[in-house]
From TrEMBL:
Chain spans, region Disordered: 184-207
Compositional bias annotation for Polar residues: 184-205
InterPro entries: DUF1559, N_methyl_site, Pilin-like, Pre_pil_HX9DG_C
Residue ranges annotated for the DUF1559 domain, each copy included: 34-370
Organism listed in the record: Aporhodopirellula aestuarii
Pfam families: N_methyl, SBP_bac_10
Domain of life of the native organism: Bacteria
Stated name of the protein: DUF1559 domain-containing protein
Length: 415
């Protein structure tokens, strides 16, 4: 009589089937996990922007104005505002400095507003109130506050950190749809605010919610707070020739304003990797310590400014000059202080966040309608209109309309 015995294991075929099933499940699960993580990072990034929006509104409630982009103390003993200075900050501070007490960073604000803030290495520092210029000049790179990495200024999706940057930021103020006057506003190279030509230039060119070195208020936003961008998300540089974060030198301002599309032209980008600059024939401004978003306290456009000219996540460029001396635009001491085309961008898929004047945070896609990219921008230089005449509606479509505050433009489509 035969007796049956219980089988104690799996056959090789059964084991292979189980392994295959597990492999398929893992293959399906990993993208879902990665997508969930990115969704969480994107939500965190949006929450940071909401916090900044509340801070800006609370600042306006307290002082009846927006925090000033490029503010601070005078130029001290240096000849022009673009030079490093340890005895003053040459009105180089970004609006992010002023908003600190309203975003739960009162302790850092106290260090900045009082003399003798600590060095970044923790030792005792000897500085003037409101600190030195937030650049890479001798004597001010050790200033502790300018090197602080502030969590509410960082998007979790952006991996950039540490040297050669100081404290990074992924959020920048909106300067409108023109590059001219974006570093000096209504001032000259010596911070003279009584020069008639520089004042007229700024009134014509500074069409965004924030105006460098000038008081700006919500009442100035005639197109409506809900229809006007006041801040945008930016990507910080990783030293990898990214067209969004390592701007190239693109020539003179007077030539560039006539056709800003030349910034990311086909001859300058890598043919096989169009998100990166070509490996030859392109002059980039990153010399180690210069890069998009590298200095949250620096009010120059490459660090804390954005424009609504080119769509999000497109190429950034700087000019060979960017400072008005009373008769012409002249070269600055370093490239990071020059005028530049600085689109917003992010490491989120397909677009970036923007902060509207009413405090709403919206996600703008890279494909937003941006008008005629070969059109000249509004540009008044000295006493002549080089590009479009002042007061014109933005030539850059819905995107340009969102960045201008008082051009009498109607937003007639969803974004």
């Amino acid at each position: 009589m035969k007796t049956s015995q219980a089988r104690l294991g799996f056959t090789l075929v059964e084991l292979l089937v189980v392994i295959a099933i597990i492999g398929v499940l893992v293959g399906l699960l990993l993208p879902a996990v990665q997508a969930a993580r990115e969704a969480a990072r994107r939500m965190s990034c949006s929450n940071n922007f909401k916090q900044l929006g509340l801070g800006v509104h609370n600042y306006h409630s307290a002082y009846d104005q927006l925090p000033t982009q490029k503010s601070g103390t005078g130029r001290g003993l240096v000849a022009t505002w673009d030079l490093p200075n340890v005895n003053g900050n040459c009105e180089e501070l970004s609006a992010l400095v002023g908003v600190l007490p309203f975003v739960e960073a009162q302790a850092l604000w106290e260090q900045i507003s009082n003399p003798n803030a600590p060095n970044k290495d923790g030792t005792l520092g000897v500085y003037v109130a409101m600190g030195p210029t937030p650049d890479n000049g001798t004597g001010n790179t050790n200033y502790g506050p300018w090197n602080e990495e502030l969590p509410f200024l960082r998007c979790p999706s952006d991996p950039g950190t540490d040297l050669p940057s100081a404290g990074r930021t992924n959020y920048a103020v909106c300067l409108g749809d023109s590059i001219v006057s974006s570093t000096d506003g209504p001032t000259t190279s010596t911070l003279n605010k009584k020069d008639s030509n520089s004042g007229q230039m700024s009134r014509a060119n500074s069409r965004g919610a924030f105006v460098p070195r000038q008081t700006a208020k919500f009442r100035d936003i005639l197109d409506g707070l809900a229809n006007t961008i006041i801040m945008g998300e930016i990507v910080t540089d990783l030293g990898d020739r990214d067209i969004r974060t390592n701007p190239r030198s693109a020539g003179t301002t007077a030539t560039f304003v006539l056709n800003p599309s030349v910034c990311g032209g086909a001859t300058f980008v890598n043919a096989t990797r169009p998100q990166f600059w070509a490996t030859s024939g392109v002059t980039l401004i990153n010399t180690g310590s210069i890069g998009r978003g590298y200095r949250w306290a620096d009010g120059n456009p490459v660090y804390t400014g954005m424009m609504t000219i080119s769509p999000p996540n497109t190429a950034a460029c700087v000019m060979t000059e960017g400072m008005y001396n009373g008769s012409a635009i002249v070269a600055t001491a370093t490239a990071d202080k020059a005028y530049g085309l600085m689109p917003p961008g992010s490491r989120h898929q397909g677009g970036c966040h923007v902060l509207m004047g009413d405090g709403a945070v919206k996600f703008i896609t890279d494909s937003i309608e941006a008008g005629t990219q070969t059109s000249a921008m509004v540009a008044r230089i000295h006493n002549a209109d080089v590009g479009l005449a002042p007061g014109r509606q933005s030539p850059y479509g819905l995107w340009g309309k969102l960045g201008t505050k008082a051009s009498k433009e109607v937003i007639d489509s969803e974004f």
